[in-house]
Design goal:
The chain has 439 residues and is of the alpha+beta class. Helix content is 59%, strand content 9%. The protein has a five-stranded mixed β-sheet with strand order 1-2-3-5-4, with helices on one face. A hairpin with a 4-residue loop joins strand 2 and strand 3. Helix 5 packs antiparallel against helix 6 and helix 6 crosses helix 9. It is rod-shaped and about 140 Å long.
Length: 439
C-alpha cells in the first residue's frame, strides 16, 4: 500500500486574514490605524488611572507613618509600577505575533504593578479572539496569582501592613472575574470576525460562481453556434464531394445534367467557404464579450420551413421527395408556428439523413415524411431505398459519428431519434420532437 505524506494542518485563528491565493496567514485580520490607536489609548488610560489610585493610597500611608524608610519604599514601588506599565504598553505591539506569551508576561507584571493592568486587559482580550480555551485558562490563572501576590506579599512589603486572607481571596476572585470579562469580550470579537470573514468569503464565492456561470453560458452559446455551422458545412462539403464524384464517374450525363451538377458544386462550394469563415470567426471570438455592438450579428440558423431547398439540392445525387401531407394544412406552411429549437433540430435531422443517403445510397429513392401538429409531436421519417446499381461513387470521408451527434442534439431538444438498416442497403431515420403550442 502506498502511503501519501501529508503536512499537518496549522491551527488558524477564526476569521484569520488570507493572502492573495486564499491561504490563511495564521494571524487575525490587519487593524486599521484608528483601531490600533484607540487600543493603546485605552490601555494607557487604564494604566494612568490605576497608577494614580495606587499612588494616592501609598502616599497617604507614607504620610501617616512619617518614616523615611516607608517613604523610600513607596517611591521605589511607584517608580517600578510606572516603568512596568510603560513596558506593558510597548509589549502590545507583539500581542498579534505572540498572543499567549504577551498576555502571560503582562499578567505577571501585575504582581508588582497596577499600571500594567491596562496592557494586560488588552492582551487578554486579544488572546481570547483566537477562541482557544488552552490559551485563556493560563491567562486567567496568571491574573489570579498576580492579584493574590500583590495583595498578600507586595503591598504589605511596601507599607508594612498585612491584609486579611479573605480580602486577598476576594481580590483574586475579582481578578478572575475581570479576566473572564476580557475573555468573553475577546470571544465575541473573534466570533464577529469569523462571521464577517465567512460572509465576505460567501460573497466572493457567489461572485466567482456568477462569473463562471456567465462564462459557461457564453461558451455554450459559442459552442452551439459552432456546432450548427459545422453541421451545415459538413452537409455542403458532402454535396460537393458527391456531385464532383458523379461528374467524374458518370459519362452518360446530358449537358444539362452536367451543368446542373456543376452549378450545385459551385453554389455549395461558395456557401461552404462563407460558413467556414463564420465558424472560424466564432472560434476566434473565444474571449470576446457576449454582447458586442461592433461585432457582426450571427447569421440566422435554418428552420424546418426551409427543408424544401435541402431536398431539392440532393436530387442530383438521389431521387428525393418531400411529403408534408401530415402537417397542418398539408404543406410546409404548417410548421410556421413550430418553436425555433425543435424547428432547427428537425432541419438537422433531415439534413443528416439526406447526407448519409447521398454518401451510401446514390441514385436511391429518398422520401422525407413530415407529420404532427401543435400540442403533440412532430414526426420526421427519412427513408432511402437501396442504391441504384452502377451509381457507386467514392464516399466522402466522414467522422462516423454523425448520427451519434444527431441523437445528442435531438435528446437535448426533448425528442427521440431512431434509425435502422433495411434489406438491400435501405435505411430509415425516424425522429419525434415535442411541438408545443404557442400562446
Amino acid at each position: 500500500m502506498q502511503t501519501v505524506a501529508t503536512t499537518p494542518a496549522v491551527p488558524v485563528a477564526p476569521g484569520a486574514r488570507r493572502d492573495d491565493d486564499g491561504a490563511a496567514t495564521g494571524r487575525p485580520p490587519a487593524l486599521r490605524p484608528w483601531s490600533r490607536i484607540w487600543r493603546y489609548l485605552a490601555a494607557a488610560g487604564i494604566a494612568i488611572v490605576l497608577w494614580l489610585a495606587v499612588s494616592v493610597d501609598f502616599i497617604a500611608v507614607a504620610e501617616l507613618d512619617g518614616s523615611d524608610d516607608v517613604a523610600g519604599r513607596v517611591g521605589a514601588a511607584l517608580l517600578l509600577d510606572g516603568v512596568l506599565g510603560v513596558i506593558g504598553l510597548c509589549l502590545l505591539a507583539l500581542r498579534r505575533r505572540h498572543p499567549l506569551l504577551t498576555a502571560v508576561v503582562t499578567g505577571l507584571f501585575g504582581m508588582v504593578s497596577a499600571a500594567s493592568l491596562g496592557a494586560a486587559a488588552v492582551t487578554a482580550v486579544s488572546v481570547s479572539t483566537w477562541r482557544r480555551w488552552q490559551w485563556v485558562v493560563p491567562v486567567m490563572a496568571t491574573w489570579a496569582w498576580s492579584t493574590v501576590f500583590y495583595e498578600m506579599v507586595w503591598r504589605p512589603a511596601i507599607i508594612g501592613d498585612a491584609i486579611p486572607a479573605a480580602f486577598a481571596t476576594l481580590s483574586g476572585a475579582f481578578a478572575i472575574a475581570m479576566a473572564g470579562t476580557c475573555a468573553a469580550t475577546g470571544y465575541y470579537v473573534g466570533a464577529r470576525r469569523e462571521l464577517l470573514a465567512t460572509l465576505r468569503q460567501r460573497a466572493e464565492t457567489a461572485e466567482r460562481e456568477q462569473a463562471a456561470k456567465a462564462d459557461a453560458a457564453r461558451e455554450a452559446e459559442r459552442t452551439r453556434i459552432a456546432r450548427e455551422m459545422h453541421d451545415v458545412l459538413a452537409h455542403r462539403i458532402s454535396l460537393v464531394a458527391m456531385h464532383a464524384g458523379a461528374l467524374a464517374y458518370r459519362t452518360d450525363l446530358s449537358p444539362e445534367e452536367t451543368a446542373e451538377a456543376a452549378g450545385v458544386i459551385q453554389h455549395n462550394a461558395h456557401l461552404a467557404l462563407t460558413e467556414l469563415r463564420e465558424v472560424l470567426g466564432v472560434l476566434r471570438a473565444h474571449g470576446a464579450p457576449a454582447h458586442d455592438d461592433a461585432a457582426p450579428a450571427e447569421p440566422p440558423q435554418p428552420l424546418l420551413a426551409q427543408v424544401r431547398e435541402l431536398v431539392d439540392g440532393a436530387r442530383v445525387q438521389v431521387e428525393a421527395a418531400l411529403d408534408a401531407s401530415g402537417l397542418p394544412g398539408g404543406d410546409l406552411r404548417g410548421v410556421a408556428e413550430l418553436p425555433a429549437t425543435p424547428s432547427r433540430t428537425a432541419y438537422r435531422v433531415v439534413q443528416e439523413a439526406l447526407t448519409n443517403a447521398c454518401k451510401h445510397a446514390p441514385g436511391s429513392d429518398v422520401v422525407v415524411h413530415l407529420a404532427g401538429g401543435p400540442g403533440g409531436l412532430l414526426t420526421i421519417e427519412v427513408h432511402n431505398g437501396p442504391p441504384t446499381p452502377g451509381r457507386a461513387v467514392p464516399a466522402a470521408p466522414g467522422s462516423g459519428y454523425g448520427l451519434v451527434g444527431l441523437a445528442e442534439r435531438v435528446e437535448l431538444a426533448g425528442g427521440v431519434l431512431e434509425h435502422e438498416a433495411g434489406p438491400g442497403g435501405s435505411f430509415t431515420v425516424r425522429c419525434w420532437l415535442p411541438w408545443e403550442e404557442r400562446e
